[in-house]
Amino acid sequence: MDVTETRYRNFKHLFEQFKEVVRRDDPKAPEKGMLKLFGDRLGVREAYMSHINTKFKNIGPTTARKMEQALKLPHGWMDQVHGQPKAKQEPKQQDQPKATQQEPTSGKDHLQVVFEMCRRKDADKTMTRLLSLLDELG
């Protein structure tokens, strides 16, 4: 698999995670408009997001780095293969009993926390939590 396909798969994975978080907050959130909302979070124009999503255009290195920065992912994250096949993935944290839930430890867990924070209305709390997560990662 080449870097173009890897970036596309990572993009699709991130987009699916984003939609899950949005729908957790608003179960009736329509599919229409999700790509624009995700693009707004990434700082990428809606038309370009549509081109990426339909594979009309590839994700170049500049856009990949921009996405990584917007999501607080490590440099080069979009260029690497991540994840496991769906059948082998562990249950999501929200599906586990509260007694077994832990603080986020993996990059994916931290990313999910960031997505959840992006959906919150209170910017000060979001910024404080983001800074706290960055300190934990640093």
Describe the structure.
This is Bacteriophage protein. Residues 96-105 have a biased composition (Polar residues). The protein is mainly α and 138 residues long. It has one domain. 57% of the residues lie in helices and 0% in strands. The chain contains six helices and no strands. The protein has helices spanning 3-25, 34-42, 46-53, 61-70, 107-119, 123-137. The longest helix has 23 residues, at 3-25. It is globular. The N and C termini lie far apart (31 Å). Mean pLDDT is 77; it is low at 84-101.
The succession of helices and strands, N to C, reads HHHHHH
Structural class designation: mainly alpha
Overall geometry: globular
Structure summary, number of beta strands? 0
Task: Give the averaged pLDDT, no decimals.
Answer: 77
Q: Radius of gyration, Cα only, in angstroms?
A: 15 Å
Strand content: under 5%
> Oligomerization state of this entry?
single chain
Estimate nothing, just give the exact number of structural domains: 1
The number of helical segments is 6
Helix content: 55-70%
Distance between the termini: 31 Å
Biased composition (Polar residues): 96-105
Region (Disordered): 74-110
Protein name: Bacteriophage protein
